[in-house]
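Below is one protein, fold included:
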Amino acid sequence: MNKQIYNEKLLNNDIRILELNKSICEQLKSNEIDTVGKLCNNTRKELRKLNFLQNDIQLIVTKLQLQGLDIKGNDY
């Protein structure tokens, strides 16, 4: 399977596939972020506005990067 097809399928998966802790998953879902794709469409600033702590945001970013993805606006 090529990388683009893999990423498209991954974006449609539930956020649980990232193996984040339960409290982060619950907080994401309470803000209607239930798929990896919806999560990737948020910036660090938007996640902070949803009351995520900096270390939670870093964990989210790390888990996404392990899958070859990233949050919006995370330029290096």
